[in-house]
Amino acid sequence: MRAYPILALILWLIPLAGVAADLCATDALDRRVCLPGPAGRVVSLSPGTTELLFSAGAGASVLAVSAWSDYPSAARDLPRVGDSQRLDLEAIVALQPDLVVAWTDGNSRAQLDRISALGIPVFWLAPRQFQAIASAVETLGILTGHASVARQRAARFQRELDSLRARFGDAPPVRVFYQVWDEPLMTVNGKELISKAIALCGGVNVFADSPRLVPRVSREAVIAADPQAILTAGPGGDSANGLAPWQAFPGLAAVESGNLFALTPDLLQRPTLRMLDGTRELCQTLEVARDHL
């Protein structure tokens, strides 16, 4: 008779074991990725995914990264497995990862489909909203077994962004040209996350309506738009130098007002939790620009 309670207990535990072991999430390509358990061996294929994995608490599980993965400092010492142009697929496979995390705007789908065909799960990311950054951290936390830490960090990110939004959302608008690159001259449209940061701070992207995410523009088009502030965050100490050519146009509102600003590199360029710091700096910079108008 005692066999029945034991059998009932076994039947009750079987579905619970399946739930505990089954970790699934939908990635940026709308693909359902399922793991038999938390990923303990992870390969990151972009600087952004590397940052997000460390933010999710999974830094110790990252075996290798892509070129230019320089944050946090611990990522600099990890082996490299290629860049956005070319990945070392043999090296990736040899690492026997439980999970590969890729970036839709940089990594080759054809190359990574070959990785997937070998049974190695590939999870694609492409945060286009602040909420998507927080969600990416939470999802990576779940897939790597660090859900609690990831959830706390994502929540803090959202909470502090909401504080910035409440503080600057009703500020007087400032027309902004955001310079991604100087030669050729490039900017962002309204769908790019940097533009959303500008809007959160009360700025108006003068090229928000461009059909391309990162369009090339002419100096004549910028002059015609007559921005009240020109911002850039180019690599290293070259940021300010990239703004110098605008001094040749003293009639431009941004030049006349002294509103040419070089922001801290990387904080806005990568859609990671550090965008909070970049957005905070951006909001403070636009406050200075308002004082100059």
Q: What does this protein look like?
A:
It is elongated and about 60 Å long. The chain has helices at residues 3-21, 47-55, 89-94, 109-117, 130-144, 147-168, 193-200, 219-225, 238-243, 253-256, 275-292; strands at residues 23-26, 32-35, 42-44, 62-64, 99-103, 122-125, 174-179, 181-182, 185-186, 203-205, 229-232, 260-262. The protein has two domains: 19-157, Rossmann fold; 170-292, Nitrogenase molybdenum iron protein domain (Rossmann fold, 3-Layer(aba) Sandwich). The chain is an alpha/beta fold and 293 residues long. The protein has eleven helices and twelve strands. Helices cover 42% and strands 15% of the residues. Strands 4-3-5-6 form a four-stranded parallel beta sheet, with helices on both faces. A four-stranded parallel beta sheet has the order 10-7-11-12.
Brief characterization of the structure:
By secondary structure, the chain is of the alpha/beta class. Helices cover 42% and strands 15% of the residues.
Topology of this structure?
Blueprint: H1 3-21, E1 23-26, E2 32-35, E3 42-44, H2 47-55, E4 62-64, H3 89-94, E5 99-103, H4 109-117, E6 122-125, H5 130-144, H6 147-168, E7 174-179, E8 181-182, E9 185-186, H7 193-200, E10 203-205, H8 219-225, E11 229-232, H9 238-243, H10 253-256, E12 260-262, H11 275-292
Helix pairs in contact: 5-6, 6-11
